[in-house]
Amino acid sequence: MNASRPDSPCIALCSTALGDNVCRGCARTFAEVSQWCFLTTDEREAVWRRLPARQRLLQLAAACGALLELDIRDGAEWGRLPGGGHYRLDEAGWLRWRGADAEPEQACDGAGLTLEQAASWLLSR
What we know:
Blueprint: H1 30-35, H2 41-63, E1 70-73, E2 76-80, E3 86-89, E4 94-98, E5 106-109, H3 115-123
Antiparallel strand pairs: 1-2, 2-3, 3-4, 4-5
Helix pairs in contact: 2-3
């Protein structure tokens, strides 16, 4: 575990207490928040590593007027919009979209997009 970070990612803006599945403050899931004290050091470290990508998913969900819902697809966390489409930002900065299972994945270079442009692209799918 990184000695320079706090014991918990909590920033005292917990929205899981309000019913969110992913906290809008720290980006942990309800399960991660409620079980934090019982996680092993390795499990906590794995959560810490996922948080930066989740923060980006939270920002995109908010820009789309939605709360973040997470699904695991092909071993990666994808955000799910109310219409059922899934989105994520990959390691190279590409914004990826998957609609229904039969539809091909679409992608655009997310590095050059503002948050509003990325949300508009997602909502137009």
